[in-house]
Amino acid sequence: MKEHTFKTAFKDSVPVMAGYIVLGTAFGVLLADKGYSFIWALAMSLTVYAGSMQFVAVNLLTGGASLISAAIMTLLVNARHIIYGISMIEKYRGTGKAKPYLIFSLTDETYALVCRGNPADTDSKKYYLYISVLNQCYWIAGSIVGALIGSALTFNTAGIDFAMTALFTVIFVDQLLSAKNIIPAIIGIVCSVICLIIFKAQNFLIPSMLIITLSLFIYGYFSKKAGKADE
Prior knowledge:
Blueprint: H1 2-33, H2 38-47, H3 51-63, H4 67-77, H5 80-87, H6 99-104, H7 108-114, H8 124-152, H9 163-178, H10 183-203, H11 205-230
Helix pairs in contact: 1-3, 1-8, 2-8, 4-11, 7-8, 10-11
C-alpha cells in the first residue's frame, strides 16, 4: 500500500513538477542575478517555500524594503492560504507529526491536488504527505539549478521575474472562463486599475490588495443578504 501510494502521488504530481522546475529555475536565475549564491536559493526554498512571495522577496531584499513593508506584503500576497488552510482542516485531521509540515507546504498547486482527495486505493494521510514533499523537492531542485545557471552564465534576465505573473494570469483567465459568477474578478480588475492610476506601478500593490479584500467582503455581505431576502 505504501509503495503504491507513493507511485500514485508521484504520477499525480508530474504536472506540478513540470511547472515547478521551470518556475523554480526562473527564481534561481533571478536571485543569482542579484548577487545571491545557490545557498540562498536553497535556504529560501526550504524555509520560505512560497513561489510568488519568493519572487517578490528578491525585490524586497535588493530594494531595501523595511521589515514592516515586507511583513505587510507577505501577508497580502499569501492571504489566500488562510482560506486554503480552513478548507484542509478535516483532510489533515489525524495526520499526527506530519501536520505541521503539511500546513507549511500547502502551496497553490499542492492544494489543487490535495483538495480533490486521494485515489480510493491509496492511504490518504501518506498520499497528502508524499504530494507535499514531492512538490517542494521539485521547487528546490528548480531553484538550485536556476541559481547555478545564473551564477555560471551571464545573460539578460529582463522579464524572468514575469514568469510567476504569467502563471497567475493563465490561472486567472482559466478560472474566469469557467466561473459562473465573474463579478469578483471584475472587482479585482477595476480596483487594480484604479490603484495603478492613483498610486503608480511602484506603490499600487498593497493599496489594491487591501481595497480588493474590503470590496469582496462588502460584495459577499450584500450578496448573502440579498440571497436571504429572496428565500
